[in-house]
Specification:
Helix content: under 10%
Structural class: mainly beta
CATH superfamily of the largest domain: Kelch-type beta propeller
Distance between the termini: 16 Å
Number of helices: 0
Number of domains: 2
Number of strands: 35
Oligomer: single chain
């Protein structure tokens, strides 16, 4: 430990690579890991993530159990500390009379907003929900704030813009796909309409998408076509006007029919570098029982990933980007949790690091998963380095207690130390170009030294 230890609550990912000075990253490898288990198999629920000094927590709200029957739709909610497998909390049930599926959860500051979804009644009738629940992560409880969606929604895209506004994009409402973007401001409990899709764009439900910086990404999903809901490959972007975020300039990148996806996740690298990728999900659309809308056939997760290029010519990659392991990315990824570090960015409006958590979903042969997986960018395959002139040295590394750190030159900077789960364990300011970092109070393991101002990341090993 070093002088000026501070305590903050932050959301972040530590990139799993050694010392590098990176300005912009043009290619990533991706790391897939199992980080914990859910207390029961769940699919089609709402998922969010939150990190503190005590651990990184995955939240799941509602969903469908392993039966894949409408009777298995429930209101149960859980909080899982992936830093401590024994720390699992059964939260209060969703404050509703019935369970819901195809809902989404997004954290804005210290609240999680669980939006929409749909009910399946005993007679088979389905109805979209207009409910929004505010969940306080500080007290692990739902608040009493009344929030109602202007347009009931399910199977939509949902994300946060600049940790302040909640964007609810497209989706399904009772009997039709939705073109509207609904924008919620938690600070004054108000809704505004964002620019809808243009007339030549096809609204879908079950699309993969989210927000990175001021850009909305939308790919795939299912469109309404009389008695069936065929999956599509449409890829759209929306540019948010920062001074008036209700103004969105939409554009069509491509509609290449070969790259369909449904209920897939979008994964961002974090710093505004390469375009995101679409992972998991399936090639064809299906009902909540994992059976094809058209044929009734039980479907399986797709193995490949889709790179979202900036132009149509770049949107042509359908390949396995995740290293082969004994893990599989499921289908039915209706929602996922993202942790972002907004503390320092190489581009002005994007988080520096991000990690995506997938909770549950459907595997081969209709098996509902109880796994929590993490997807993160690992070592950059091709990077543009910059010469900051600091060139720090770290010795000894590995160490049993302390690390000597020596910069060529150093102005006052903030240093953060994270553990391998991405939790902040130490923070201090440093102005001396030579100093000693004391790790003796920490457990043996891998830690990450991050000096954002000088763009230094170093993996440290404590014996």
């Amino acid at each position: 430990m070093v002088l000026n230890l501070g305590i903050i609550l932050t959301i972040f990912l530590i990139p799993c690579f050694g010392f590098t000075q990176v300005k912009s990253i043009t290619a990533y490898n991706w790391s897939l890991n199992k980080v914990s288990n859910l207390p029961e198999p769940v699919t089609n629920g709402a998922v969010s993530a939150y990190s503190t000094f005590n651990g990184t927590y995955i939240y799941i709200f509602g969903g469908l159990d392993s039966t894949l029957l409408s009777s298995g739709i429930h209101r149960r909610c859980y909080k899982i500390n992936i830093s401590d497998s024994s720390d699992i909390t059964r939260l209060p049930d969703l404050p509703d009379s019935l369970g819901r599926i195809a809902l989404s959860a997004t954290k804005v500051r210290d609240k999680i907003y669980i939006v929409g979804g749909y009910y399946v009644f005993a007679n088979g009738r389905e109805k979209s929900s207009s409910l929004v629940h505010e969940f306080d992560v500080r007290g692990d409880t739902f608040t009493n704030k009344k929030i109602v969606l202007p347009v009931p929604i399910d199977d939509h895209i949902q994300d946060v813009w600049e940790d302040s506004l909640l964007f609810v994009i497209n989706g399904w409402s009772d009997s039709a796909n939705v073109r509207e973007t609904q924008i919620y401001n938690p600070s004054n409990n108000s809704w505004k309409k964002g620019s809808p899709y243009t007339n030549d764009m096809i609204p879908t439900f079950g699309a993969g998408g989210g927000i990175s910086g001021n850009t909305i990404y939308v790919q795939g999903g299912a469109r309404s076509d009389r008695n069936s809901f065929p999956s599509v490959s449409n890829y759209y972007k929306g540019e948010i006007e920062p001074n008036n975020p209700t103004q969105i300039t939409w554009s069509t990148i491509t509609s290449n029919d070969s790259l369909t996806s449904y209920r897939s996740a979008i994964v961002f690298n974090g710093d505004g570098g390469p375009e995101p990728i679409i992972v998991g999900g399936s090639k064809r659309s299906y009902n909540y029982n994992a059976r094809d809308y058209s044929s009734g056939k039980l479907l399986a997760p797709m193995k490949s990933s889709i790179i979202l290029g900036s132009t149509q010519s770049e949107f042509n990659t359908d390949q396995v980007l995740i290293p082969t392991t004994d893990l599989s990315i499921p289908m039915d990824i209706r929602d996922w949790g993202i942790l972002r570090d907004w503390s320092f960015t190489l581009s002005s409006n994007s988080p520096n690091f991000s990690i995506t958590y997938l909770a549950g979903g459907i595997l081969e042969n209709g098996k509902v998963s109880n796994q929590i997986l993490s997807l993160s960018p690992s070592f950059p395959g091709n990077s543009n380095s910059i010469d900051t002139g600091v060139e720090p040295r770290f010795f000894p590394n590995p160490t049993k207690s302390t690390v000597n750190i020596r910069y060529n030159n150093l102005f006052s900077t903030q240093i953060r130390i994270y553990n391998s789960s991405g939790n902040l364990v130490d923070q201090f300011y440093q102005s001396e170009h030579e100093f000693i970092l004391d790790l003796s109070h920490l457990r043996s393991g891998i830690y990450y030294y991050v000096d954002s101002q000088n763009q230094v990341t170093k993996k440290l090993i404590k014996k």
